[in-house]
Amino acid sequence: MAFDGLFTRAMAKELDEALTGGRVHKIYQPYKNEVMIIIRNKGKNVKLLVSAHPNYSRVQITEETAVNPEEPPMFCMILRKHLERATVQSVYQPGLERIIVIEMKGRNDLGDETIKQLKIEIMGRHSNIILVNKDTQKIIDSIKHIPSSLNSYRTILPGSTYVYPPPQEKEDPFKADKLDILKHIDFNAGKIDKQIVQRFAGISPVAAKEIVFRAGLVNPKTLPPVFLNIMEKLKLHQYDYSLTVTEHKSDFYLFPLKHIGDKHKSFTSLSEMLDHFYFGKAERDRVRQQTLDLERLMKNEKEKNEKKLIKLEATLEKAEKADELQLLGELLTANMHAVKKGMKEIEVMNYYDENGGKLTIPLDPRKSPAENAQNYFKKYQKAKNSIQAVKEQMKLAMEEIRYFDVLLQQLESASVKDIEEIREELIEGGYIRRKAKRGFKKKSDAKPLIEKYRSSDQTDILVGKNNKQNDYLTNKLARRDDIWLHTKDIPGSHVVIRSKEPSEQTLLEAAMLAAYFSKAKHSSSVPVDYTKVRHVHKPKGAKPGFVIYDHQETLYVTPDEEQIKAMRI
Q: How far apart are CA 552 and CA 483, in angstroms?
């Protein structure tokens, strides 16, 4: 991972400069493996995100917001007890380990000064956040408990003594010289990048690959100067925080990763870069974990209606042949004198055929001629009556398919807070049962939270992320002369511009939002309709989020994720 020992060293310096001297104002734990600490320093609030997520572990200052749970987890309550109103004394990294220690001074229940350490271990799926008493190094608590049965070297449980992870016995890259590099690298063995990772502390595979790439034709003459030049800059904290992006992947580091690609975006701080890189990633991962059951339900319901539609189409095709049954009945009636009970069929002249053709009419030998004719007329009437019912069923099936198409699209862009509204909608629709929950209950009249964006000319743009939000935004929150947008014939979000006459640029940016939060997110030249809210109506009895509209015009836009990020409030 890019968050290696060298990166951790740079982050520790950034956090030390931003947090030291600040006072802990609030602490909350929005998700299972993540803690948000609000620190008041130099007249402003600094949001510190500490994550032990198995895929997105990190520590950084963030501009992102997270929902504060109504019921804080136990670890959060312990952090509040020991750290709220404490003052940050220092932030540092032990050695070149992927560990950051934040020391905070506060007072215990007796009023005595104490110093606690928040030890943040950024180690992928082994990441952890551990609160320790500095004097005794006793663990107060951790976000993940690791008993001795899982790790015989170190136990991470309340009351245990904190022990650092086992040392890797590698060379310090900042103290290395040319002879050290030549001594530890076997140029004949190949895989030079892996050798660098194995021999020198704090260097990740991605950093090692970049060193080898910049050395060109790797040999004892080309590698040492590149290695030493990079380490000298990092030692002096001379960084070029860069996000390298290609069509298939992106990665970040303390300098441009030229071995990945030529497209680099620079940032003024590590935290700004991480906010940009992780924008939506951890959120989407959490959403996937929490919506597996919903996605399965939606796909099953959609598939069920698609199969039903095929059967209904076959039934309709059969029913639409009703005129043939009427013809057979009439011809049989006209030739009643030629029909005898016991006959299985009869060939008659088709009076409706201009060419004077003949037809063979199947008969039920058990029935009289009149009963056979009447049977055809009954079948005709039944088929004729069923056509309307079948068409109605087909309409309902198609509505269900469109509905679940929309819900599946909404899951793709849903945030964690959106999921419960989608789940509530499915409960109200009778698709899933409501589970009895203990404790806090969401108020039934709670208003959906609408995401807000701002155009380049400072006009507010509102986006509904699910059907409840779409209904509320379009039918209640929006003003009649606001501009409403939606992708043309494509499942997507309702978007509202808070202006009667927005600029052309704002219209294009709002259309881009509508395209981005739609099934056509990854397409180009996406058609987006726009009209005034007064021309948008919800039909009586329609599914949540469904509307009809007129007086529309159409724009064609291509979603740009970078621009979307810049517009978000």
A: 10
